[in-house]
Design a protein that fits this description.
The complex is a heterodimer of chains A (about 290) and B (about 350).
Chain A (H helix, E strand, L loop, with lengths): L6 E3 L12 H10 L3 H13 L4 E5 L4 H10 L1 H4 L3 E6 L2 H11 L1 H9 L7 H9 L4 H17 L9 E4 L1 H10 L2 H15 L2 E6 L2 H10 L5 E6 L11 H9 L6 E6 L9 H10 L4 E4 L4 H10 L3
Parallel strand pairs in A: 1-8, 2-3, 3-4, 4-5, 5-6, 6-7, 7-8
Helix pairs in contact in A: 5-6, 7-8
Chain B lengths: L3 E6 L3 H10 L5 E7 L3 H10 L4 E3 L2 H8 L3 E4 L6 H10 L3 E4 L7 H12 L5 E3 L7 H11 L6 E9 L22 H17 L4 E8 L9 E7 L5 E7 L9 E8 L2 E6 L2 E6 L11 E6 H4 L10 H15 L9 H20 L3
Helix pairs in contact in B: 4-5, 5-10, 7-10
The chains are: A alpha/beta (about 290), B alpha/beta (about 350).
Chain lengths: ~290, ~350
C-alpha cells in the first residue's frame, strides 16, 4: 500500500466551512470569493513545504484542479487526495425527488425520466445488486473526473456518505468501492468517518484491507463518536500497514491551541494530518508543530 | 437480549438517515421497510435479505408485526399511518411536521397519551447540545425574566422556480416553508420559552414556489407578557447549510444561540456558572457531547436512540411526544389563519 503524506493541506477554509462561527465562515467565504486568493494560499503552503492537497469535489474544485493542471511546471508533482462527493449537492435533490431520481439527475442530467431507474429496471431484480454497484461506480467517475491528470494518492469517500453507508452495514458496497478505486484509478481507497472505532471494526470484520481512514482526532473529543477513549484505544492498537490513519479537526475548530493540539496528536499512532489554514503564520506554525 | 423490532415507512431523505442510525443500536432490529418506490425496496432486499419489504404500510404492520415504526412519509400520510399503528399496539416515531392540521394532531395525541405506547415526533433540535445548554441557562434564571426573543431559521432548500408539481410545493402534502421549516422553529420556541398563546402580524412570501410560501414571519404572543418574533426563509442562498439563530433578552442579560455555539451577555457576573460580566462565548466544541454513532448530526442519533431507550425502559421520560407536537401544530394552523387576515 502506497504511503500517505505526513502532512496534507485541506480545503475547508476556502469554501466558507467553519465550525467556529457563522461570522468566521462568512468572512472566509468573502476572502476566497476571488479564486486568486485561494491560489495565493496554496502558493504560501507549498513554499512552506506542503506537498499534498486534499480537495472536496465541490463546485469550485474543478476550476482549482484545472489551474493546477495548467501550471504543472510551476507546482511539480503534488500528491492529491480528492474527497467525493460534495454531499450538499445531493441533499436537497434527495429530499425533493427521492434517492434514485436524484442520482439519475446527477448521472444523466439531460434525461431525468429514464436514466438510473431505467437502467435498474432493465436488468430486473436478478441483476439489481450488480446494477447498483455499476451505478455507484458511475457516480464515482462523475466526481473524480475533475481530478484526472493530477497525481492522486488516495480517493476518499466524504464522511456524510461513509457514515450513512456504514450504518447500513452492507459489506459489498465498501468492498466494491475499494476494489473499484484500486482497479480503475490505481490509487488507495480512503474513507472519511466521524465514527473511527466503528469503521475500523467493520473493515476488519469484512476483511477489507489497505484502506486509508481519515477521522476527526483531537484532544477534546470533538466529533469523535462514540468517545475519545474508544478512539485512543483503536488508534493505539491499529496496524498502520493495513489501515493508515489521517487525522482531521485536530484543533477542534480552534477550540484547542495549536501547541497543545499537536503535542497530543504527535503522541498518537497516526500516519498523517490534514489541516487547513489561510495565513502564512498559521500554515508555517502547524507544519512546524506536526512531528509524526 | 430481546431486540425491539422496527419497521420504517417511507425511505426518502429522512427514512434513509434513520435507517442508518437505528441499525447501529444494539437493542434495535429493523425488520421491515415500506416505500412506494419498487427500486428502493428491491435494492434494500438484495443487500439486506433479512428485511421484509412492502409497498403498503398496512401490510408492513399486519405482516411484519413490528414493535415500533418510524414514519417518514409526506406529512399528510402521518395521520392514517399512526391511527393504524395505534390499533395494532405499535410504538411510533413520526417525522415532523406531525400532521396536516391541529385536529388530527390532537386526536392522535389523545389516543397515545391514554396508552402506554411510546410516541415521539422528530423535532430534533430538542436534542441539540447547544440549545439544551441555552435552555438550561435560561431555566436557571441567569439572564433573568425573559421579556423578548427573536428566532430565525435559514436554508438554501428552494433556490429555483418550481412548476408546482413536487410534494414540497403542495401545502396539503406538508410542503411549504411553514410546515417543513418553520415547524422546527415553532417547536424549538415552545421548548425554550413555553407554548405561545397566539400569533400576530404573520406575513408569508413566495420567492420561487408556485403554490406555497418560501418566507414566513410572525410574532408569537404569550399571556405572561413575553413575546417573540420568528423569521424563516428557506430560499436564502447565503446559507450553505440550515441555520437557526435564537436571541433572548432578559432583565439580567441576554443569550444568543445558533448551531455554532452560544454567547451570553450579563449585567453582573454569575459565579455559580462561571459566567463573567459582559460577554462569555462558547463554541460548539465546548458544548458538543459525542453520540454512540454519528450520521448528519448528534441530535438525529440522540433522538432515535432515546426513542428505542424509552421502549426498552418505561422510566425514560419523553422529550417530544405527540402532545408536544400537537401544540406546535396548533400554532402552525394559527399562522395560516393570521396570514390570511393580514392580506390587504
Amino acid at each position: 500500500m502506497e504511503k500517505i503524506d505526513k502532512i496534507v493541506f485541506g480545503d475547508n477554509q476556502f469554501f466558507g466551512i467553519n465550525h467556529m462561527s457563522q461570522e468566521k465562515a462568512q468572512q472566509l467565504s468573502e476572502q476566497f470569493f476571488d479564486i486568486k486568493n485561494i491560489y495565493r494560499v496554496y502558493d504560501i503552503a507549498i513554499e512552506n513545504g506542503i506537498e499534498a492537497i486534499m480537495l472536496n469535489s465541490n463546485q469550485r474544485a474543478s476550476e482549482i484542479c484545472e489551474y493546477f493542471k495548467q501550471n504543472k511546471s510551476k507546482y511539480g508533482d503534488l500528491n492529491w487526495y480528492p474527497s467525493i462527493p460534495y454531499p450538499h449537492k445531493y441533499a436537497n435533490m434527495v429530499a425533493e425527488k427521492g434517492i434514485f431520481p436524484a442520482i439519475s439527475e446527477v448521472l444523466f442530467s439531460n434525461n431525468t425520466a429514464g436514466g438510473v431507474l431505467g437502467m435498474l429496471a432493465k436488468g430486473g431484480t436478478a441483476l439489481i445488486s450488480k446494477d447498483t454497484i455499476k451505478m455507484m461506480q458511475m457516480l464515482v467517475d462523475v466526481e473524480v473526473k475533475m481530478f484526472k491528470g493530477l497525481k492522486i494518492n488516495t480517493i476518499f469517500l466524504q464522511n456524510v456518505i461513509t457514515d450513512l453507508l456504514l450504518g447500513y452495514g452492507i459489506k459489498e458496497i465498501f468492498e466494491e468501492y475499494c476494489e473499484y478505486i484500486r482497479k480503475k484509478y490505481h490509487v488507495s481507497p480512503g474513507l472519511i468517518t466521524l465514527n473511527l472505532p466503528y469503521c475500523l471494526e467493520k473493515l476488519k470484520e469484512w476483511n477489507i484491507k489497505d484502506v486509508v481512514v481519515c477521522s476527526s482526532i483531537n484532544k477534546i473529543g470533538f466529533t469523535m463518536s462514540p468517545s475519545t477513549l474508544a478512539y485512543e484505544e483503536v488508534i493505539l492498537n491499529n496496524d498502520s500497514s493495513v489501515y493508515q490513519l489521517m487525522a482531521m479537526s485536530t484543533l477542534a475548530s480552534g477550540a484547542i491551541p495549536p501547541k497543545e493540539a499537536y503535542d497530543y496528536i504527535n503522541e498518537q499512532n497516526i500516519q498523517s494530518v490534514v489541516f487547513g489554514a489561510s495565513s502564512e503564520k498559521h500554515i508555517a506554525e502547524t507544519i512546524e508543530l506536526i512531528k509524526l | 437480549m430481546v431486540k425491539i423490532r422496527i419497521g420504517i415507512i417511507g425511505m426518502g431523505r429522512m427514512g434513509i438517515t434513520h435507517f442508518s442510525i437505528i441499525n447501529t443500536h444494539q437493542q434495535a432490529e429493523i425488520v421491515s421497510v415500506a416505500d412506494t418506490s419498487k427500486t428502493t425496496l428491491d435494492i434494500l432486499k438484495k443487500f439486506i435479505p433479512s428485511i421484509q419489504i412492502f409497498k403498503d404500510f398496512h401490510e408492513l404492520i399486519d405482516i411484519s408485526k413490528p414493535d415500533a415504526i418510524i414514519v417518514c412519509t409526506p406529512s399528510n400520510l402521518h395521520y392514517p399511518v399512526i391511527k393504524y399503528a395505534f390499533k395494532n399496539g405499535v410504538h411510533v416515531f413520526c417525522e415532523k411536521p406531525f400532521t396536516a392540521n391541529k385536529l388530527e394532531a390532537q386526536e392522535l395525541a389523545n389516543l397515545y397519551s391514554n396508552s402506554s405506547l411510546v410516541n415521539q415526533v422528530g423535532f430534533a433540535n430538542r436534542y441539540s447540545d447547544v440549545f439544551n445548554t441555552a435552555k438550561s441557562i435560561m431555566d436557571q434564571g441567569v439572564i433573568g425574566d425573559i421579556i423578548r426573543f427573536k428566532s430565525e431559521m435559514f436554508s438554501c432548500s428552494i433556490t429555483k422556480k418550481t412548476n408546482g408539481d413536487g410534494w414540497r410545493d403542495k401545502k396539503e402534502n406538508g410542503g411549504g416553508a411553514v410546515f417543513e421549516m418553520a415547524s422546527h422553529l415553532i417547536d424549538l420556541n415552545n421548548y425554550l420559552f413555553g407554548i405561545s398563546n397566539g400569533v400576530t402580524g404573520t406575513i408569508l412570501n413566495s420567492v420561487y414556489s408556485k403554490n406555497v410560501e418560501d418566507i414566513v414571519s410572525t410574532t408569537l404572543l404569550y399571556k405572561n407578557g413575553l413575546s417573540g418574533t420568528m423569521y424563516v426563509n428557506w430560499s436564502d442562498e447565503s446559507y450553505r447549510k440550515p441555520m437557526i439563530i435564537i436571541e433572548a433578552f432578559g432583565d439580567k442579560g441576554k443569550i444568543i444561540a445558533d448551531f455554532y455555539g452560544y454567547k451570553v451577555f450579563l449585567k453582573e457576573e454569575n459565579k455559580e456558572l462561571k459566567l463573567r460580566k459582559g460577554w462569555s462565548v462558547f463554541t460548539l466544541p465546548n458544548v458538543n457531547k459525542p453520540v454512540p454513532f454519528y450520521v448528519r448530526g448528534n441530535e438525529f442519533t440522540r433522538q432515535l436512540y432515546h426513542f428505542v431507550d424509552m421502549i426498552g425502559n418505561k422510566d425514560v421520560k419523553s422529550v417530544c411526544d405527540f402532545n408536544d407536537a400537537s401544540k406546535t401544530q396548533v400554532i402552525i394552523d394559527d399562522i395560516f389563519v393570521d396570514a390570511e387576515q393580514n392580506k390587504i
